[in-house]
Amino acid sequence: MLQRGLTAKDCGCARQIWWRGVLLTCTFLLAGGCTQPYHLHNPEHSPKVIQLHWNWQVHLVQFKPASAILSEDERRRLDDFLYEVAPKPDHHILVDFGGKGELNRLTQERIDAITLQLKQRLPGAVVHAHSGDEPLPHGVRVLVGHYLVKIPDCPDRTRLLESDPDNVPDSNFGCATAVNLSRMVVDPTDLQQGRSLAPGDAQVLSAAVRRYWEDKVKDLVAPSSKSSANE
Length: 231
What we know:
The chain is an alpha+beta fold. Among the domains are: 19-47 and 153-184, no CATH class; 51-150, CATH 3.30.1330.60. It is built from six helices and four strands; from the N terminus they run H-E-H-E-H-E-E-H-H-H. It has helices at residues 8-34, 72-85, 105-121, 175-184, 202-213, 225-230, and strands at residues 51-62, 92-96, 127-130, 139-150. The chain has a four-stranded mixed sheet with strand order 1-4-2-3, with helices on one face. Strand 2 (92-96), helix 3 (105-121) and strand 3 (127-130) form a beta-alpha-beta unit. Mean pLDDT is 77; it is low at 1-6 and 33-39.
């Protein structure tokens, strides 16, 4: 039985089918290369995040039995502690008298003596009395609490792009920005919550920008000859 030979039309269809197969194969390969396998995801390799943690610094102040007078040695030790800690207005200052809430006259006098010392060294400081669980028969504890910035563990070279064909971000990604910001920030609480723009008036402050847009910029006020003569 004789078979019909291939015509030019048949060859053209075969070429189209072959090219379609090649294109589909390339498409699947590209899509697979751009998709990160779920099992390769590691939070440690995500962009570095600056973390804040609350820190308490504690100093024990001792009194003589049945006395609320702060000795010179204890006063000097407290001054050294405050100098080292350098409390700021946003720091929390507590005077822990222990005793699980048992506040007697002697304890109150000791709290007053410590509070007076703190306010003399830190004008405007807000000091709160606190009853801790640990009994303190002959003293009180001064606690200064504030946020600290935890610098990310950088540089992180645990995963390099040169040896990773799975298109996973470099483990060092974001390190420079996070470390620089951690070291530059003055008040760590600014990373937790932004400051208020008060008492600035946004409407008044934006008026200069609007005048610039409308080409109605006001000229600078020239100093008068009278004021110059007085100077």
